[in-house]
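Thread: "does anyone have the structure for this chain?"

Original post by V.I.:
We have the sequence but no experimental structure in hand. Need at least a predicted one for the grant figures.
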Amino acid sequence: MCLEDLSDDDLAKKVQAGNRLAMNVLVRRYERRLFGWLLGRVRNRHDAEDILQNLWQRVLGTIRNYRPGSGTLFPWLIYQMRSCLSTHLRSRSSHPEALLADVLAGAENELGRNVDPSLDLLRAEDWEKLQRLLARLPVEQQRVIQLWFLVGLTGPQIADQLGVPENTVHSRKLTALRRLRDLSSGGPLEL
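Reply from O.Q.:
Generated one for you, tokens below.
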């Protein structure tokens, strides 16, 4: 059986064993799909290519963490790519509020395209409301909400990226969600 005919899990096992040809097959299998996903978010071909390159380097370094049989490979790749995307957005943003604008603008383009089902939960006018509400939060809370819900990182990953303890991340998230709830229902805003 040739490598192209292997299932994702079998291909991942070969990559984990150090088979470079299997890695080439993996790249060919998902490159176009992942590139389209990225291009829809960053809206710049050069940036999307850079992020995709970073993804494949990351995959080579973290493929040992993938557990064949525990799920499908594609969601694991998306998870890895979201981390690369987050790093890219942070690195080119000298102003924290630019991260929100970039993520929302990219996500807004995806509404109705069925690329990311979570985006279909929000209608276009909800993005505008969400952007206004998030702008009223302190920057530290905005960043946690952006990285958690819009980029898809976990608490430990956010803590690592922001250089704060994980408990601080959870505290900021909880406080931000309470404030967003109050703001969206017209309740009081505690400063």
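V.I.: this helps a lot. Confidence is low (pLDDT under 50) at residues 94-98, 104-125.
O.Q.: and Residues 20-42 form the longest helix (23 residues).
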